[in-house]
What we know:
Layout: H1 2-8, H2 15-31, H3 36-40, H4 49-61, H5 67-85, E1 89-98, E2 102-111, E3 114-124, H6 131-152, E4 161-165, H7 172-181, E5 184-187, E6 194-197, E7 202-204, E8 221-222
Parallel strand pairs: 1-4, 4-5
Antiparallel strand pairs: 1-2, 2-3, 6-7, 6-8
Amino acid sequence: MHQTLCQHLPEELSKPQRRNLSWVIAGLHQAGHVHFSKVASKRVGSATLESKTRQVRRFFSNEQVDPQCCYEPVAELLLKQAIASGSPIRVLVDTLELSGERQALMAALAHRRRALPVCWQVRRRTGVSDAEQQRGPPQALSRRINDACDDEGACDDVPEVIVIGDGAFHSTDLMSYLSDKGWSYRLRLHSDTYVQLSNGKWTQVGDLAPEEGAKTAISTLST
Length: 223
């Protein structure tokens, strides 16, 4: 695995950086854990576990290693494979709480009950993300898809894109952007969000909830 990974890592990394990164990736996979000591325990060699753990920690602390540069080939490969499959591309948009009052907005490919990140933006946590911030990951994803298509020469063969998100991505501006892109979306709306029915009447989403055990279908809805 180590030798295979080295062949796909960016050339911008030095040889030692490529070697260390490949060991980290292999360790993450084999250990099934993100703790440094667990990852380090899977690295071969006669060094002590404490020494191996320090090596892993130094790699992640190295400011000369650009995370974006390291992950770029992975995200590109994931998107190319998703496009080539011909199946609908299901994209999960989500927010991740980080340390230090930070928050990451992420777009990930849904694959076999896993989320494979392809785009993300980190911002200072100041409450609920606004419409412009919510559009960030889908816009970055659109650029990545276009780049992947240009490389493959298959822009006309992009499968349907379906964006799935929770209540943090309920902005009507985001819905309009996705509609303009021709993408489908499944976004959880707040119960007090107003929607317009086909008869022109405006009502809150919560008022459309059917009684227990009942079913209802709405053919046309505008937010």
